[in-house]
Structure formats: C-alpha cells, structure tokens
UniProtKB/TrEMBL annotation:
Gene3D superfamilies: Jelly Rolls. Residues 42-101 form the Cupin type-2 domain. It holds the Pfam family Cupin_2. CDD domains: cupin_KdgF (cd02238). It comes from the Bacteria. This is Cupin 2 conserved barrel domain protein. InterPro entries: Bacilysin_H2HPP_isomerase (IPR052535), Cupin_2 (IPR013096), KdgF (IPR025499), RmlC-like_jellyroll (IPR014710), RmlC_Cupin_sf (IPR011051). SUPFAM superfamilies: RmlC-like cupins.
Length: 127
C-alpha cells in the first residue's frame, strides 16, 4: 500500500490571492500547479478567441459562467454554465466566448508551456 503524504504537504489556495495574468484584452487566467495536474481559472469576455491548438495534456473544461463554443475536429460544441467538456490528448481544438464566461480547466500533466511562458498562441485572443 502506498504511503500517503502528510496533510502538511497539502496547499490551500484562494483565487483572490492569485494575480490574474492578462493574456490579451479579452482573456485573463490564473492557475495553480499540483504534483501531476494543473487547475486554471480562465475569464473570457464575449468574442474572446483561443486559436486552434493541440497538446499532449488531457483537459477537462468546466464552464462556470457564460457559454463557450469549442471547435473539436471541425465541429462546434457549445458548453454552457454547469456543463463540462473532456478533451483527450492531441485533439485539435479552439474556443470562442459566446458571452462573458468563466471556465475552470484541469490539465494532466501540468502545462509546462504555460509555466515557462511559451504560450504565444493564447496572447492574440480576439475576433
């Protein structure tokens, strides 16, 4: 049986304590990194665009507020508040904010490109 880490290895976070990173005029993000996954809070204003991209990370996207249109394999999938989309690794996708929105994205493993600042595709961001 694997030995569990003590509670002292746990970390408590509050979004209000994490400075948002303004990616472009319509998109801001915050994130926390665990051992094997990353949780990001993305705020997208209506019209924000996350251009077509793909990555080896598995992604789970939970729309908390608003509505986002994902394009997966060239097909639109609208995800509204309270809905979740699971995106397997290596699947090309893009996102357009249909209205002001907030999404929580989980990535496994963590997005090292974000941590290193090698994510220029996110920094254009408007239609």
């Amino acid at each position: 049986m694997p030995q569990e880490k003590p509670l002292s290895a746990s970390r408590h976070h509050r979004w209000v304590d994490i400075k948002p990173e303004q990616m472009n005029p319509l998109t801001a993000r915050q994130y926390i990194v665990g051992t094997n996954m990353m949780l990001a809070r993305i705020v997208l204003r209506k019209g924000a665009l996350v251009p077509m991209h793909h990555h080896f990370h598995e992604q789970i996207s939970h729309v908390v507020e608003g509505a986002l249109e994902f394009r997966i394999d060239g097909k639109p999938v609208t995800v509204r508040a309270g809905e979740i989309l699971c995106i397997p690794p290596h699947v090309p996708h893009e996102v357009v904010a249909l209205e002001d929105s907030v999404a929580l994205d989980i990535f496994n493993p963590p997005r090292q490109d974000w941590i290193d600042g090698n994510d220029a595709y996110l920094r254009g961001g408007g239609r």
